[in-house]
Amino acid sequence: MQLTADDFERIAEAIRRAEKKTSGEIVCVLARRSSDYAFVPPLWGAFVALASPWPMLLFTEISPREIFAAQIAIFIVATLVVSWGPARFLLTPRVVKRARAAREAIEQFFSRGVASTKGRTGVLIFVSCAERYARIVADEAIAAKISDDEWQAALDLLLADMRREKVADGFVAAIEECARLLARHAPPGASGDELPDKIYVV
């Protein structure tokens, strides 16, 4: 999912419009992927190597020393094969990918300063493309006032456009819905614009 220069400007303008209606701060992050999953190749290599002696014992006459040498070779080859990017990602369990994406969303929430606004009314809209994962993370003051179902409505708009490969449209729609929710509970104040009005691509 690529963003054009026009997409960046559309999203920034949507944030600026949104923050005129509320004292809340909206930050957007688009991650290409949430992890390199470097731990996956050696795990698969070890699994294949540990499983390999059984067919060799059952169907061949090779010695234990040769089996051990074969295990080492199998571990190396399997690890190298799974190290290829697409294979590594494909062989990573979905639950692991979702957990990594969820952790990345929380890390971005803190690293982008969303948790440090004066009124604790920051909102992060996060998308991780490779994992097909999206999440809205709200700071404690505003999260206590807006239900999960209401946030889900904004997230559904984002996900619907993501499925159509229109990620910029999804961000704009989610920003507008978040602004509507924030305006009810965090009206415009005197705190000013605390965070940059932009989307971060990581």
Summarize the structure.
With 202 residues, the chain is α/β, with parallel strands linked by helices. It is 58% helix and 11% strand. A hairpin with a 4-residue loop joins strand 2 (122-128) and strand 3.
Describe this structure in words.
58% of the residues lie in helices and 11% in strands. It is of the alpha/beta class and 202 residues long. A 4-stranded mixed β-sheet has the order 3-2-1-4, sandwiched between helices. Helix 1 (5-19) packs parallel to helix 9 (167-185), helix 2 packs antiparallel against helix 4 (64-83) and helix 8 runs antiparallel to helix 9. The radius of gyration is 23 Å and the shape is elongated. The mean pLDDT is 90.
Second rung of CATH, namely the architecture of the largest domain: Roll
The helical percent reads: 55-70%
Main-sheet strand order equals 3-2-1-4
Looking at the structure, the CATH topology of the largest domain is: Diaminopimelate Epimerase, Chain A, domain 1
Unreliable stretches: none
Could you tell me the number of beta strands? 4
Which series of helices and strands comes N to C?
A: HEHHHHHEEHHHE
Termini gap: 12 Å
Q: From the helix content, strand content and strand pairing, which structural class follows?
A: alpha/beta
What is the overall number of helices? 9
Radius of gyration equals: 23 Å
Instruction: Give the CATH level 1 class of the largest domain.
Output: Alpha Beta
As a percent range, the share of strand residues is 5-15%
Shape: elongated
| Biggest sheet features | 4 strands, mixed
Q: What is the total domain count?
A: 2
